[in-house]
# Entry
Amino acid sequence: MQSTYAIDTPGPPVPTEQECEGNLKRWSHRRTAMSVVGALVVTGVLVLVLAGRRAQFETALSSAPISLLGIAVLLQIIALLARGEAWNVCVRAAGGTVSRRLLFRAVGAGCLASVINGSVGMAVRLASLRRIAPQSTPRMPALVAAEVPILTVELSLAAIFSVTLVGPLGVPWWTPLVAVALAAGAVAGLRRLSGRHRKGLFAGLAVLRNRGRGRMISFALLSVCAQVARNWLMLHAIGVDVSIFDAMALLIATFTVGQVPVGPSGGPAAAVLILGAHGVAATAAAGVLLLVTGTLGSLCYATWAIADRLLAGRMATGSEAVASPVAAAPSSA
# Structure
């Protein structure tokens, strides 16, 4: 009996490698410019909101212990490592054979750009990986698609915990139910799509149909948990008594605001938007501390990536220098 389930049915046309790289570069340039303008606007609004609360704001900033700030930086690094490993699983499922070390270097490059905007950081990370390992990574269309499974997990978690936004934002109670239903439909649709189309762009969805799916989900979940813990820690460090659900709501809001080109000012703005009822000055200070510790964690990661690349280059140069005299030496008769 002939099967009615097509495994390798032709998919819709996908952009070429050059088109994908060109579009990604132009998009990241526009996103950067818009983020700079957006950051200036949002910062100006925050300054107006904090007018008359300068003393409270400075007191809240100075009240956070250095030890807790260090833990927050460490949690940011853990989140980056966990998400990097989730990406590694997706890239390998898509056919990549690049070493984990090179892939994590590309993550470090993205960390530098993510200080401007998370989406720009993603574009830089993808371009960096293709540049340093063009032969052992999937082509750019599939590499872009390999981001989709991780984003799907993150969006699904956001949908599940969007119930935490009902109180702070006053959204209808049924909104989280709709969000969960949409997330479940997206997951089901992507799994079906990954089963029907397995080449080109759709190779990036391969992790959704193989055994690595559970590992990818676990590391993506670990990354999210580290970010929630960092939110909760910084809020308590300055005396804002919130629950873990409030910390989840802040993460969802930060992720959502981060999709708008407002640069690094999105974090403090999200904190005031979601938790402003606990005190505008205190929550704005918490947002600033989250921004600072997140940036420091990203810079630490990027510093390792740069140092590792320089060290590998020196070792390669030294090996070539040692090998050259041996190759040039005349053979004995």
